Amino acid sequence: MIRYRSTTGSQAEESGFETQDKAIERLVEIYNEKKASQQPHSKAERIRKYGAMPFQEYVEEWKAGQRHLAVASVGHLDSLLKHHLYPALGSRRMNSFDHKVVDGFIRSMERKGAGLATQSNAFDKLRAVLLDAHRLGIFPDNPVAGVKPPQYNPAQAVIPSPEQLRGIRVAGDDAFTLIVDLMSGCGLRNGEAAAVNLKCIVADDVYRVSEQTIMSTRQYGPLKHRKPGEYRDVPLPARVRETIEWYAQKYGTTDGYLLRQPTDVSKPYPHHGMDNQWRRIKAAGVVDIPEGMVLYGNRHFFASNCLSSGIPITDVAEWMGHKSLDVTFKVYRHLMPGSISSAAKVLNLNLAA
User: Fold this and answer.
1) In what order do the strands lie in the sheet with 206-209?
2) What is the pLDDT at residue 44?
3) pTM as predicted
4) Cα separation of 269 and 264, whole Å?
5) Which of 87, 88, 105, 98 shows the shortest CA–CA distance to 130?
6) Residue 127 and residue 103 in contact, taking contact as beta carbons nearer than 8 Å
7) Distance of CA 182 to CAs 27, 67, 173, 219, 238, Å?
8) Cβ count near 232 (within 10 Å)
9) Are 194 and 259 in contact (CB under 8 A)?
10) Please, which residues have CB within 8 angstroms of residue 5's CB and are 6 or more apart in sequence?
């Protein structure tokens, strides 16, 4: 004999089983039937709960699960929500979204004069939220499917020539020289260069990028698009290693860090330290700097140097810490050597006559 609770909650029993194993098999069957009958109900409850939820409330719950985002990425997300997504969509019920609503949001950003980069970033965040809701079953069809995303193409990078770079790297103080060498020689971002550490030289020709200085917190933090503790190894040219060792010998280090706040060595090197120097150097007009070049152009030089030397773009993307190869391709496609004609000549070499 077996006893169990039916789907209505009342106690039931069955008897007449020849063996205990057959009674257990029947219990397992009843359990599976009961579980299957409950699933549609729980899904329906979930759809009702989240479908009626305002977009802003849903996003705040969704955002709590985005633990992989770095501090800077969270700040960027909050800014997009505050200035673009919440004002336009905050009170809208989740189950009212469809492709027309999404397309209307994009067009409203266009009318308000939002830049293409902002439009693209806001659309990416909205798409991520709605895809999460689609997985929950709120929408029978993906509400973003068929929507044409904003077409953002990054401006062509302004890159110094080797001769111009030689003048730029010595135009400021020693800290500026070190930062320029790390950006142009290893492809580091501004904040990553400011967090340079002697301990990150893991081989004579390898530097391990493991943290950066965060502008908003003025503290060390994880890399962009990376979780705490994640890192990337990049090539370390001999000239850059010599600059690091020279600076460490001349000024010393604090727990391996070379650059610190001038007035308080217990704090990281401030972003404005390099930015202010760059503005003064450009304003002085003594050094030959390409028109439109920003400090980030020193990092662009690294990509240009790699690609013009025939290094695969997949390696360049990894070393630069790009979230996807698409970012590298959009910004640096024009730097990739070769054309249809040259490709045809190369491919012809191994073809039978």
Assistant:
1) 201-203, 206-209, 232-235
2) 82
3) 0.64
4) 9
5) 98
6) no
7) 67, 29, 15, 20, 11
8) 16
9) yes
10) 11, 12
